[in-house]
Structure formats: C-alpha cells, structure tokens
Please model this.
Amino acid sequence: MNTVTIVLLWLINLVTDTGGQLAFKAAAIENREAEGWAHWRHMLGRPWIYIGAVAYIFEFVAWLAFLSMVTLAEGVLLGMAGIVTVMVGGRLWFKERLTRPRIIGISLILAGVALVGLGGGA
Model:
C-alpha cells in the first residue's frame, strides 16, 4: 500500500465530507422564515445545496478508493475524524458552541484516530 496515496485519499474524504456537511447546513438555515415546500424551493434555488451534493459525489469516490486500500475497521475509524472537522467548521462558520462534553468527545476521537494512524487498528 502506498501510504502517501492513502493519506491523500483520507484528506480528500475529510475535506469533501466536511465541506458537504457545512454546505448543507448553510442551505438549511437560509430563509428560516419559510416553511414546508417554500423552504425547500428556496434551498433548491441556492448554490449551497448543489455545492453540498457535488462535495458528496467527490467524497463517495474518494471514500471507495480509500476503502480499497485500508481495512474496513481502519477506514471507518479514520473516517470519524470528520466528526471533529464538522464540529470545528460549525464553530468557525456558524458560531456553534463547543461545550465541554463536545471538546472531550473531540479529544477522544482524535486520540482514537491517532492510535489507528499509528498502526493500532485492525
């Protein structure tokens, strides 16, 4: 296995997953006054929903390539880093709160990802 390729695919997956999640959040919170179908019509007319969808298409391809090079256990554990990047992105972009339990959770996830990255996985 080519370690550089694996890391690159993991980073692409991380960036596209995070970007997609943040884009979908941006689409979902625009025009909060509208309800029901009016809200959905508004979202479909905005670029964020399409940016999120394209990000997920790229993520899907990167994820399949990544999983073809690592064990499923390692891949899924390393994929959990996306939870951290989405929380940090939500804090930076949407001013969402990082509470103490979330910070502890982020720390535990990062520790697990580091262990898997060091060869502690399956």
Q: What stands out?
A: The mean pLDDT is 89.
